[in-house]
Amino acid sequence: MNAPECNIGLHRVDTLPIENSFARLPPAFYTQLRPTPVSSPYLVGASARAAELIGLDPAEFAKENFIEVFAGNRLIPGSAPLSAVYSGHQFGVWAGQLGDGRAILLGDVPACDTDESGTSGRMELQLKGSGLTPYSRMGDGRAVLRSSIREFLCSEAMAALGIPTSRALCVVGSDMLVMRELPESSAVATRMAPSFVRFGSFEHWYYTDRHAELKTLADYVIDRFYSDLRDAPNPYQALLAEVTRRTAELIAQWQAVGFMHGVMNTDNMSILGLTIDYGPFGFMEAFDSRHICNHSDQQGRYAYHMQPQIGQWNCFALAQALLPLIGEPDDAHAALENYKPAFDAKLDDLLHAKLGLQTREPDDSALVEGMFSLLQNTHADFTLFFRRLGDLQVDNPSADEPLRDLFIDRPAFDAWAIQYQARLRKENSKDTERRQRMHSVNPKYVLRNYLAQIAIEKAQNKDFSEVAKLLAVLEKPFDEQPENEKYADLPPDWACELEVSCSS
Ligand code: AMP
Ligand code: MG
Q1: Ligand 1 lining (C-beta closer than 6 Å)
Q2: Distance from residue 308's CA to the centre of ligand 1 (Å)
Q3: Domain limit, last residue, from 168, 200, 232
Q4: pLDDT (tens digit, 9 = 90+) per residue, 480-501?
Q5: CA–CA dist 289, 305 (Å, integer)
Q6: Residue 237 and which of 41, 44, 91, 446 are 20 to 30 A apart at CA?
Q7: Using CA atoms, how far apart are residues 337 and 236, in angstroms rounded to an integer?
Q8: Which one of 200, 225, 249 terminates a domain?
Q9: Whole-prediction pTM
Q10: Per-residue pLDDT tens for 176-211?
């Protein structure tokens, strides 16, 4: 995905036309404060694509001013930094007030629209890990280098996969150590999104009984990001319906690519339907629908197969918070009814595309169910399965060898493949065309934990080359990239010992 053409000029950091629209909300919504400086900051990685979206010249990356600004040591002229308050349900339990405990919103700048959710034509710039705020609770306001690199790479990888997401401009490291299980290097990541308002931002005003603020926030979001809904008979119901639809479609996209968020608390759910707050996420490797990517999630509340229903649960939590504005519970329910059909339709479209099917047949759901049982029983690698499936030839079994190699139980694969080939014949599918279509939707390269880990370990030793290399590979996830074949490899044995948790 190249930066869309738009006319926002080419800026240096200091000439970015920044303002802070969120700061026009009443003071109850945030606390104004400056980032806490860090000593001897250095650039760990930066995304030229993200920079281009906001008209920032990537040549700036090499300048000291860029590093100082995105370390939080210097302010861009015109910015009015603040941390926002929000609340949320964490692991299904009401957690009360949370808020930007380590994030500081610098302001918003003009941006090229990336997709339907970027309708404001602006991007907020937010530092994460930039020091204590009034919402830090027990935390230190900092982020470790390891999780900052993971968020940076995954944000840009998801964007390249065409999945709605916040973006990442850069990661700036510092020699300051922070205490987690062990002392670790810290970093500041800069994220960009049209808005970081969350479901939990609405819950905050609902559960504190401040319905005037609830309305102010809903009006702000509608006017700025959903202006088409302003004239709906009940704009708040329309907002809920639209957020529900976007959330359902987002999670269908996660399922289709095997992405697991890991912490789908309501404070991590974007009101714009974007993937936000990357933490202990993972991409499905050896398929297991019950896989839990977050080591802290003992119950498996956010396991892969749970994501669709948790997305719906979160929309219910949003509906509850919006109820004073919507009025009738029936109207809120009507909006929530969007969830299942939107999810099913989107996932169905995505799976048809992933299988290279261009028509619909009554037996397709059985074919898809059979495929998921096959994957579940054999634990084949999710990404490689779909990628190699694109190389299958309807009447040439020898072309399937790399695909068959993914299965220890070959007869199980062969049995399913016979049905799949029969289905392809039914629509007269042409091998070459289908291969091209399938390769444009089934990525070859995803951010496997072990790939991130290699880049992180090098970065911890001040070698940032692998961060840049991995970013470049993940920016073209659907391309063959013969020189980067090893980045598509199955995880090595040591990778099964990798654990990612909420500690970041
Ligand atoms: P998360 O699960 O990362 O989305 O974080 C949940 C809440 O904890 C949010 O309000 C974060 O701002 C806050 N938080 C997480 N880590 C820290 C930290 N190191 N310092 C301060 N607040 C934090
Ligand atoms: Mg969060």
Answers
A1: 98-102, 135-136, 139-142, 263, 268, 277, 279, 502
A2: 24
A3: 200
A4: 999 999 999 999 999 988 989 8
A5: 5
A6: 91
A7: 15
A8: 200
A9: 0.97
A10: 999 999 999 999 999 999 999 999 999 999 999 999
